[in-house]
């Protein structure tokens, strides 16, 4: 199936697609950014103690820890 390029469509088809997209967007439930950002901040803060990027990985559970050293004699 060939790729669809918007530039290749007639103007009427482009407008139909735009109207269809606008209808979908109108149905979306919107929330204030101030409320959403507060919820995201709280979510992150609640889980920061479990986050290995913040807390670090214990040496005994670190899968990337070197198993041993190489000795060249």
TrEMBL record:
Residues annotated as domain G protein gamma: 5-73
UniProt entry tagged with the keyword Electron transport: no
Coiled coil start-end: 12-46
Topology class, membrane: Lipid-anchor
A biological process term (GO) from this entry: G protein-coupled receptor signaling pathway
Major location (coarse): membrane
One term under GO cellular component: heterotrimeric G-protein complex
Domain of life: Eukaryota
Keywords from the UniProt entry: Cell membrane, Coiled coil, Lipoprotein, Membrane, Methylation, Prenylation, Transducer
Subcellular location(s) of the protein: Cell membrane
Region (Disordered): 51-73
GO molecular function: G-protein beta-subunit binding
Function: Guanine nucleotide-binding proteins (G proteins) are involved as a modulator or transducer in various transmembrane signaling systems. The beta and gamma chains are required for the GTPase activity, for replacement of GDP by GTP, and for G protein-effector interaction.
Subunit structure: G proteins are composed of 3 units; alpha, beta and gamma.
Family, per entry: Belongs to the G protein gamma family.
Protein name: Guanine nucleotide-binding protein subunit gamma
Gene source species: Suricata suricatta
